[in-house]
Automatic annotation (TrEMBL):
Belongs to the universal stress protein A family. The lineage of its organism: Bacteria, Pseudomonadati, Pseudomonadota, Gammaproteobacteria, Oceanospirillales. Residues 1-138 form the UspA domain. CDD domains: USP-like (cd00293). This is Universal stress protein. InterPro entries: Rossmann-like_a/b/a_fold (IPR014729), Universal_stress_UspA (IPR006015), UspA (IPR006016).
Length: 141
């Protein structure tokens, strides 16, 4: 069956459902679960979105914001682990920072995943309709 199952998480209910499916698959054999989440990079001109100026952040401000985004990403994995019974399963975790679809495909290769189990609708539904969803980009990537 499967040896390694990659489960990208984004904090959505669909991701929790995907983790439930992945846990069932892992229990059906001897697969290891590899949970991951991606903290996207903060945009350079975030000030426009927060009512400020278009001036880019300083490097120190970007690093502080990036660290906060990584901390939130770790919380996504913790919440998923709390929501799904993973007892008796071998579980690894990773948090990456960058473009989700690209990093999910990289991680799948890195951990030699036999399958990626992920929700098809996450937290970015509107953005996904306009630019293509992460799950679609992963499936064709």
């Amino acid at each position: 069956m499967f040896k390694t199952i990659l489960v990208p998480l984004d904090g959505s209910e669909h991701a929790i459902k995907a983790l439930n499916v992945a846990a069932s698959l892992a229990r059906g054999g001897t697969a290891k679960l590899h949970l991951m989440t991606v903290a996207e990079f903060p945009p350079d001109n975030i000030g426009l979105f927060t009512g400020g100026t278009a001036e880019p952040f300083s490097e120190a401000e970007r690093e502080k914001l990036a660290a906060g985004m990584k901390e939130e990403a770790h919380k996504v994995i913790e919440q998923a682990r709390d929501a799904v019974d993973l007892s008796g399963l071998e579980v690894e975790e990773s948090v990456r920072q960058g473009r989700p679809a690209e990093l999910i495909n990289e991680e799948a290769e890195k951990v030699t995943a036999d399958v990626i189990v992920m929700g098809s609708r996450g937290l970015s539904d509107v953005r996904g309709m306009m630019f293509g969803s992460v799950s679609h980009k992963v499936s064709v990537g």
